[in-house]
Structure formats: C-alpha cells, structure tokens
From TrEMBL:
Entries under Gene3D superfamilies matching the protein: 3.30.230.10, Histidine kinase-like ATPase, C-terminal domain
Ranges of compositional bias, category Polar residues: 336-348
SUPFAM superfamilies: ATPase domain of HSP90 chaperone/DNA topoisomerase II/histidine kinase (SSF55874), Ribosomal protein S5 domain 2-like (SSF54211)
Descriptive protein name: DNA mismatch repair protein S5 domain-containing protein
Keywords for the protein's UniProt record, in alphabetical order: DNA damage
Gene Ontology annotations for the cellular component aspect, listed alphabetically: MutLalpha complex
Organism of this sequence: Trichoderma guizhouense
Length: 378
C-alpha cells in the first residue's frame, strides 16, 4: 500500500501518538518498521553515547519513490487506510499510526537510504526537519532494503539529552534485552547489534535454516538451558485431540507455543535466564502486569517439575518462553485501539493492551489461566 494520511476520524479513534523518551524507543520503532517491511535481517548500530548516531538497516521491501514525500509526516502510514481495517490489520503489523518517524523527526535529523526491487539504484534522502517530506536526495549505491539513520537525538531538549547521556549504558542493555526477546519471538529473523568503535558490545543472532524457538534459546543461552526445556504447542481447545493440525488455526482458536522447563529440569540451568512473553510474536515486557501474572501461574508448575525437589519459588528469574497466537479478527477494535504488546505510547499503554487481550479476546483472565494450566497438564 502507498503511504497516505489517515482520515481525521481514524486519527481521533486511535487517540495517542508515539512518544520517544529514550534512545532505545527509537530502535524499537525502527526495528518494528523493518519487520513490517518483511526484513529477514536487521542490523542496528549506535554511537557509544546512543545519541549521536542510531542506524538501523534492513533487507526489507524498501520504500517506493512515490512515497518519499509522505515520509516523516504525522499520521502518514502505508499500513492502515481506515479504522474499520484495524481488526484485521492490527494483528499483521507492528505499527499503523504513522507517528513514529514523525515523532523522531521532531527530535533528531533523519536520513533514509532505500531501494525497492524495481529501483536500479538506491536513494539517500534527508527529511525536512519537523514537518517531514524530502529536504534533499541523491542516488547512491545500496542493496534492496532500507537504512534509517538518526543523528543528534534530543539536541533541542538539553535536559532529556543530559539524562539520556547519563543512562546510555542502561539503554544499551535494554536494547540488547529487546533484541533477545525479539529473537525468541521471531526465531527466523537475523539480528545484529553493535556500538560503533566498541567491539565489546557486539551481539548477533543468526538463525539456522527454519529455526524455531528451541534453536534460538540454544544460541542465546547455550545447550544446558535448551536440553532442560521442552517445546509445547497447544490449541486453545486442549481436549480437542482430534483437532487437525496445531498450526492450522481455526477461527476461534488461540494457540499457545511455549518453551518451558521440562519435568525433572535442573534448577541451575533455568535460573536467571528470564521470562519471555509474546503475543502474536510481539514481545511483552517482563515487567508488564500480565507477564507477572502469567509468571505467577507458572511458579507452582516449576516447583512440581524441578528434579531437585528444590522450591522453585526461590529460583531467581527462571526461564519460560511463551507466545500466544490469537485468531484472526480477535483484536477488539473498540477496547484496544492498538495491537496488544505494542509497547508504544505512555507506560500504561502496554499494560492496558495486555489486559485488553486477556479480557476481550481471551474473554476472561480465567480462560487464559485455564488454557495455560491445560497446556501444562496435557
Ligand atoms: N524500514 C522500512 N521499510 C519500508 N518502509 C518503511 C520503513 N520504515 C518506515 N517505512 C514506511 O514509513 C511509514 C511510516 O512509518 P512510521 O512512522 O513508523 O509509521 P507506521 O509504522 O505506524 O506506519 C510506514 O507506514 C512505511 O510505509
Ligand atoms: Mg512504525
């Protein structure tokens, strides 16, 4: 779809805009855009202070020349035409408000290098500060895909710049955590991260052919963890043993895919590795209230399953990876104007969205709890 302005009525329904308060918010938004563009590889490079340069390169479909003038303009998106489409589109894309590039363009200088399969050469363009659209452009040599470079973030906001500079180490760690969660949620996506000029921060995830979450866990955490976990995938109708293919989702089905410690697991193998929750492959923060609640459900199971007889409630941060796949059209347009798990907007937004999916799409929290319990019992 071409990039165009959302109708004002849709903008009003969608309500909030994208807020960039930390440099890692920029990486999150650019990573989402790369995934939405169908990338199989995303490379992130930042300057050591995380503000001078943020560069995200992908091998996605690129941006059409006709769309250049719409880039960085508020409410301009290629992912949604009108509010009515939200029920179906929200599940397919990670963003649909057309606000992220516009928000960044008010806080930094944006250069986009992009090429689609139709283009003989790539184009590098600088966006007009604050208003979006093309300031200047030139042909350059680059492969198909898009590189978005953000420079001088928060230059016009001295207090936020100072605060971010002080916390750059923390934000670099948050970015690595985000990428790890992304690799577990989308094990077929190749990811790399580097801090320019500092070899110590290099991180990468390169999936083997047709990688699943177990292969991702093996690469990210090592064989000890992978050998102590089992991958389970259950249809929401757990007793529906005659259900055709688990991966063939029926209209009402939720599918739970989990990599969880297997019965008799070694406590030392899973402790400290963390809880990874995603909904339709969108990572949800482990600090999110829904994630905490689900973890609380798992703790008694872990107690029973531990081979050592050790009380697992005392295991710090045990490994559990869970992805909930929702049926098409299950996103409630009225209650949730944003895709669940989409960590955009104010801090309360992801929590609201997580509960929205529990309440309105899984019907009740109890329903989700029982589905997870069923999955453990089956
Ligand atoms: N990496 C990318 N590859 C291809 N298109 C992109 C990329 N980043 C941004 N775009 C285009 O720019 C538009 C605006 O992006 P953004 O401001 O993040 O809003 P949204 O993702 O909500 O549409 C997107 O809809 C998409 O068409
Ligand atoms: Mg976006």
């Amino acid at each position: 779809m071409p990039i165009s302005a959302l109708p004002q009525s849709t903008v009003r329904f969608l309500g909030s805009s994208v807020v960039i308060t930390k440099p890692c918010d920029v990486v999150k938004e650019l990573l989402d855009n790369a995934i939405d563009a169908g990338a199989s590889f995303v490379e992130i490079a930042i300057s050591p202070n995380y503000l001078d340069t943020i560069r995200v390169r992908d091998d996605g479909q690129g941006i059409d020349i006709e769309d250049f003038d719409a880039l960085g303009k508020r409410t301009h998106t290629s992912k949604l035409r009108a509010f009515d489409e939200l029920g179906s589109r929200a599940r397919e894309t990670l963003g649909f408000r057309g606000e992220a590039l516009a928000a960044m363009n008010c806080l930094a200088t944006i250069t986009v290098t992009t090429r689609t399969v139709k283009d003989v050469v790539a184009t590098r363009l600088q966006l007009k500060p604050k208003i979006g659209g093309v300031d200047n452009k030139q042909p350059v040599s680059a492969p198909v895909g898009t590189t978005v470079q953000i420079t001088k973030l928060f230059e016009t906001l001295p207090a936020r710049k100072q605060y971010s500079l002080k916390n750059s180490a923390k934000y670099i760690q948050s970015t690595k955590d985000l990428l790890k969660a992304c690799a577990l949620a989308r094990p077929d996506l190749r990811l790399s991260f580097k801090v320019l000029g500092e070899a110590t921060h290099c991180w990468s995830y390169a999936p083997v052919c047709a990688a699943g979450v177990k292969e991702a866990a093996l690469q990210l955490f090592g064989t000890t963890l992978a050998n102590n976990c089992v991958h389970v995938s259950r249809n929401s109708a757990c007793d529906q043993t005659t259900s055709p293919q688990l991966n063939q989702q029926l209209p009402e089905d939720f599918i739970l895919e989990a990599l969880i410690p297997k019965p008799g697991f070694e406590v030392r193998a899973v402790k400290g590795k963390g809880f990874y929750l995603s909904i339709d492959s969108r990572p949800i923060s482990s600090h999110d209230a829904m994630a905490k609640k689900i973890m609380a459900i798992y703790k008694p199971y872990l107690n029973q399953a531990a081979g050592t007889g050790e009380h697992c409630a005392s295991i710090p941060n045990p490994f559990v990876q869970l992805n909930i796949r929702c049926p098409p059209d299950s996103y409630d347009r009225r209650a949730s104007n944003q895709a669940p798990g989409n960590n955009k907007g104010s801090n309360s937004r992801p929590r609201e969205c997580a509960y929205t999916i529990v309440r309105t799409t899984l019907h009740t929290e109890r329903n989700l709890v029982s589905k997870i319990e069923d999955m453990q019992n089956c």
